[in-house]
Amino acid sequence: MGRFAVIDTETTWGDEVMSIGLVIADSGRFTPIEWKYYVLTPFKNHGGMYAHALYANGAMPDLECSRERAVGDLARLLSAHYVSELFAYNAAFDKRHLPELAHLAWYDIMKLAANRNHNPKIPRYADCHGTGRLKRGFGVESVYRMLSGEHAYCEQHNALADALDELRIMKMLNHETGRYVRV
Questions:
Q1: H helix intervals, the chain
Q2: What are the residues whose beta carbons fall under 8 Å from the beta carbon of 95, sequence distance 6 or more?
Q3: Which pLDDT score is estimated for 118?
Q4: 72 vs 69: CA distance, rounded Å
Q5: pLDDT one-digit tens code per residue, 63-81
Q6: d(CA 143, CA 174)
Q7: Pairing of β 105-108 and β 85-88
Q8: Distance (Å, rounded) from C-alpha 63 to C-alpha 155?
Q9: How far apart are CA 88 and CA 78, in angstroms?
Q10: What is the 8-class DSSP label of residue 100?
Q11: pLDDT at residue 1 tops 60
């Protein structure tokens, strides 16, 4: 059974990673197998646009620890599941913030989700570039609402909750992992 991972980070005002959410998923059914949530010290105390969401809805980290320990644990988890492919919405952002994982293959969910050639739920009236990419409204929240029809959906900006939502986006798009664009 093939597996991949979806990863999301939240950063401080100083652009340091303060939390990481990781979901290991089955590549055939796009269902979660295991997930981990890391809150990084001391960065959790540095503030950030979404610092309020670190423990949103009772979210408790699996590890609240240093970046080195979190990335080491994350690497062991990926290895234990034989995962070498990481998916993220706007993957260049997360990859840039996690250079320790640059040796893995990173793929961008947004490249398909925000393009009418790959996302049939983008309305015909949507303002798109000639390539089919949305000019605006291409964030997780807007795309999730389009795909699911859940117009009240709000992105939590909690790294684990967001990684799970990004996996749901992949499932709703219904593309094989091989269709995604590598960054």
A1: 67-80, 91-97, 110-113, 140-148, 159-173
A2: 86, 88, 101, 102, 106, 183
A3: 97
A4: 5
A5: 999 999 999 999 999 999 9
A6: 14
A7: parallel
A8: 23
A9: 15
A10: G
A11: no
3-class SS at 39? Answer: strand
> In terms of Cα–Cα distance, which of 176, 126, 159 is closest to 50?
159
In the structure encoding, which two tokens stand for residue 170, read together? Answer: 């992949």
Structural domains in the chain plus CATH codes: 3-182 (3.30.420.10)
What is the distance between the alpha carbons of residues 149 and 58, in angstroms, rounded to a whole number? 26
Q: Which sign does the torsion angle of CA 71, 73, 75, 78 carry?
A: negative
- The amino acid at 46: H
Cβ atoms 166, 87 nearer than 8 A:
yes
DSSP codes, 131-156: TSBBSS--SHHHHHHHHH--TT----
Asked if 183 and 107 touch (Cβ cutoff 8 Å), the reply is yes
Listed in sequence order, the residues at least 6 apart from 93 whose beta carbon sits closer than 8 Å to its beta carbon are: 9
Task: Enumerate residues 6+ apart whose C-beta is below 8 A from 75.
Answer: 100, 101
Digit-coded pLDDT (tens) for 136-180 = 999 999 999 999 999 999 999 999 999 999 999 999 999 999 999
Beta strands 3-11 and 17-26 are antiparallel
